[in-house]
Amino acid sequence: xxxxxxxxxxxxxxxxxxxxxxxxxxxxxxxxxxxxxxxxxxxxxxxxxxxxxxxxxxxxxxxxxxxxxxxxxxxxxxxxxx
Length: 82
Hints:
Structural class: mainly alpha
Strand content: under 5%
Number of helices: 5
Order of helices and strands: HHHHH
Shape: elongated
Radius of gyration: 16 Å
């Protein structure tokens, strides 16, 4: 059964796409569900903000060879979340 609780669990586990799909299904069944609306807005905004960023930085992350590169990656992460 797809519920807000399950969607929240997926979201907390980093399964954002799966959570988003559940929120959309909930909203289809109950168009007045404000929790689902808020979650969809939040996750859709995150998707737009990070579009293609993860693939670019994944390669950088995989190829890091020293502490300097690690520090650069860490700074990049901090900029994203602030």
